[in-house]
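User: Predict the complex.
Assistant: Input components as received:
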Amino acid sequence: GAVVSQHPSWVICKSGTSVKIECRSLDFQATTMFWYRQFPKQSLMLMATSNEGSKATYEQGVEKDKFLINHASLTLSTLTVTSAHPEDSSFYICSARGAASAKNIQYFGAGTRLSVL
Amino acid sequence: GQQLNQSPQSMFIQEGEDVSMNCTSSSIFNTWLWYKQEPGEGPVLLIALYKAGELTSNGRLTAQFGITRKDSFLNISASIPSDVGIYFCAGRGGSNYKLTFGKGTLLTVNP
């Protein structure tokens, strides 16, 4: 299957600082990228969807000014958690999807564990 | 919105046993996907289904797209300890590009 690389795999930061998470599709062009959040023992919760060169579409209840998403190229999307607080601690997972010819399969990164102190 | 019911929530089985889990939807999907997630990792795609009635295998795994397009099942035969993890079903409707995930089935395999 296609490879999606997510970095960093874990990060610890102080409350009030900002954290950037990168998501790269390594062997295909990702026309659409998705960002999910997952709490322990729960399913994936979609935060936002981004298409290359466009503004991200955020799910209801997700603060767009807090979770900044940039999808500047067909292989890179970033999620910046601004002014992070302890309640933002979670497992963040990106996902990428290629063109329609790839049957719209979503491939996932390995996730980023964020701990805000 | 679309809802997926995935069952069972968890399973504790002995090595060598077969496993079956399923998902049902409140609405029609045109794609069903099955993923496995191990602790601290992202989901890994196991099987993708695109047609009603489609039956697809991947090694010891077999999944089917229900004929009503509202359900899918995943079977694992002759389970081994490395099958341990959380299995998620995910479906996508017609014009809706977003995946809807089930709540997952936690599988534990005792050697």
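The longest strand of chain B covers residues 85-92.
Let me know if you want any component modeled separately.
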